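Hey L., structure's done. Input below.
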Amino acid sequence: MENIVLQVNIEGMQDKVRTDWNSLADELKTRGMDDVALNQLHTELRAGLRVSTRGLTLSMVSAEPFNEALEGIISESRKQAQSQGEVRS
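Output:
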């Protein structure tokens, strides 16, 4: 199963945390989830579903917003460096 970035809400708490599939899968195994259920959960998350299980609400975090933000930061840094004469294009 591909490692994916996840947003996790713990039941009864307001905070959201981010983790990866590999770390979460290990935790869910300790909570009694078998490999078939883990595979099903992974498939549902990859399909974009929000899933609640074992006291956790899970959703996959899309990489697109992060990539767009990163591109914006890089572009802005280049512009700033060019205006200061530090970078030649």
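The radius of gyration is 19 Å. The first strand starts at residue 5 and ends at 10.

-- N.
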